[in-house]
């Protein structure tokens, strides 16, 4: 990260235990403001645990987590969200029995009725994800996997956020939907949102990533620019067991 780029989120020597298991072993991670940081690694490397630790869903046993220069380690999750951080888990967290509109209204905490939601912001979301508008009054449980993912991201951005944390947004999606998602994230980043993304789809990572951090066995074992990482097939092979 260059000296001119400000870090929005930093993890410094973070350890996390889940029950009897020691999952994170001193994670160091820097997410530069206004950029898209890819968190890569094999299954079980600790990526999801890192995201959940940032959000306070797992407690920091040791180390520091700072957002905008302030400590957020072990704050309650609602307080962390109130700072301007949105989290889209791999499970998406959609309320299947509620309509798309009702799911969005729950996320727009400043609105009590659909009419109270920011109309200009909704139009922007509808342009990013037309399916959200198309199925506005449909039960969310009836949506396809790709449409649910679009709804999950739409809920996360229905209010302005400084940081968007998303776990495997392209998992199980068709290539056309993935390309739509890539375009939407590129526009989100251009609007000034900082994004931290866990992703297995290497095409997705290459197209979007500014910086990359690779995890293995509960630690970050490589961090740097995405372009340099994409060009170094030997490094990819060593860290991920594959080449981009």
Brief summary of the model shown:
This protein has helices spanning about 45-55, 75-80, 100-105, 120-130, 130-135, 145-155, 175-190, 200-210, 225-230, 235-240; strands at about 5-20, 20-30, 35-40, 60-65, 70, 85-90, 165, 195-200, 210-215, 220-225. The chain is of the alpha/beta class.
How is this structure best described in words?
The strands form two sheets. A six-stranded mixed β-sheet has the order 6-7-8-3-9-10, sandwiched between helices. The chain has a four-stranded antiparallel β-sheet with strand order 2-1-4-5, covered by helices on one side. The chain starts with 6 loop residues before the first strand and ends with a helix. It has helices spanning 47-54, 77-82, 100-107, 119-128, 130-134, 145-156, 175-190, 202-208, 226-231, 233-240, and strands spanning 7-18, 21-32, 36-41, 60-67, 70-71, 85-88, 163-167, 194-198, 211-216, 219-225. A hairpin with a 2-residue loop joins strand 9 and strand 10. It is of the alpha/beta class and 244 residues long. The protein has a domain at 1-84 and 163-171 and 197-244: Rossmann fold (3-Layer(aba) Sandwich), CATH 3.40.50.300.
């Amino acid at each position: 990260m260059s000296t001119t780029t400000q870090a929005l989120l930093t993890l410094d020597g973070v350890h996390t235990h889940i029950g009897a298991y020691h999952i994170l072993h001193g994670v160091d991670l820097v997410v530069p403001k206004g950029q898209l940081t890819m968190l890569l690694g094999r299954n079980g490397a600790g990526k999801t645990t890192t995201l959940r630790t940032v959000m306070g869903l797992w407690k920091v046993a040791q180390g520091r987590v700072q957002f905008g220069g302030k400590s957020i380690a072990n704050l309650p999750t609602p307080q962390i969200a109130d700072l301007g951080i949105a989290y889209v888990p791999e499970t998406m967290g959609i309320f299947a029995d509620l309509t798309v509109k009702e799911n969005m209204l729950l996320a727009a905490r400043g609105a009590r009725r659909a009419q109270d939601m920011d109309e200009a912001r909704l139009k922007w979301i509808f342009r990013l994800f037309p399916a959200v508008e198309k199925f506005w009054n449909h039960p969310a449980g009836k949506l396809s996997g790709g449409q649910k993912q679009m709804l999950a991201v739409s809920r996360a951005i229905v209010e302005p956020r400084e940081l968007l944390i998303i776990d495997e947004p392209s998992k199980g999606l068709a290539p056309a939907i993935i390309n739509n998602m890539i375009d939407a994230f590129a526009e989100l980043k251009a609007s000034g949102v900082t994004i931290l993304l866990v992703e297995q789809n290497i095409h997705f990572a290459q197209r979007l990533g500014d910086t990359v951090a690779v995890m293995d066995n509960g630690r970050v074992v490589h961090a740097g620019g995405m372009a340099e990482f994409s060009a170094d097939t030997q490094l990819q092979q060593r860290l991920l067991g594959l080449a981009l």
